[in-house]
Amino acid sequence: MPKKNKYPRLHTRTKKGKAGQVYTYYTYDMRPEGKPDINLGSDRLAAIEKWKELQGQAVNIRGRLQEAFNRWREQELPAYDSPVTRRNYALHLKRLEPVFGMATWDEITVPVLRQYLDKRTAKTQGNREISVLSIIWTKARLWGMTSAPWPAAGMKGWKNKEKAREFEVTDDLFDAIYEQADRILRGCMDIATATGMRITDAILVQRPRGGLLRHRHHKTGKWVEFDLAQSPVLTAIAQERERIPSASSALLVTDKGEAITYPMLRKRWLKAQQAAAQAHPEKATDIQTMYLRDMRKRAADLADGLDAAANLLQHSSKAVTRKHYRTKATKLKAVR
Length: 336
What we know:
The protein has helices at 44-60, 65-76, 83-100, 110-119, 123-142, 171-180, 183-195, 199-204, 232-242, 262-279, 284-288, 295-302, 306-312, 318-324, and strands at 3-4, 10-16, 22-28, 38-41, 212-216, 223-227. By secondary structure, it is of the alpha+beta class. Helix 7 (183-195) packs across helix 12 (295-302). The relative contact order is 0.08.
């Protein structure tokens, strides 16, 4: 056990070298924050100066947003299933901390939030960051760090206006990437466009049983079920999967039977995208602005009408499907 002295959380540690010599060094105890100890070096006077700085920071965050930021990062962020969500939320938090970390709860008002959004050059990302701040604020109330309600509760239209991204994954664009993709990327593209699943769900969906492909969406928790007999695409993927020995129960695996990860797919997508742009220079701009997640858009367009698209994508509101996913024009009949 480390020796303790009159300086709280300052620990003296010793270790022996190979020749039997004894080294003394000092650390700052970070166990209350759930983090590794901070090495303060072997110079005691310098270590004490560093201790004063750290101890001052530890005291200062009490009653400030940074206290909630730290706890949310350690306890809540790892609980999100999607690695993409975890990565994005971590980036949003990194943006928020320098601005709001040392503020007290009563200092955060709607004008302060609006000022943050005004200064952000990436307007859509600014909205996302404020949404994460709202999530953390709610948790802080549950933790007893503040009793103040979210400053913008009940208000509408105060964030940056967002324009829905308009992009249609045409047959030509889809085929251009598909031609350059390997089996794994093709499988993911097929699953996503056949079922409307998000990429993270397409990676995790399990092998079908009894001719049915069942999956619980990680974002919404909703169960979906697909009859393979009604989908030649899913049937082909399932038959191909039968020929790959693997301990994994996932529908999509590597040739060695290993589980697929998002970074694997992203690397394959970028490689196929680059090759497709070179093979089709006349479509290069559109190819390079297409994302893997756009396969969900294609699924919405392949569906038979807006109702079917909203149902496939598991949207409770058709307005969301129409605004963000469905790119096909409404077919009308001339009246004369």
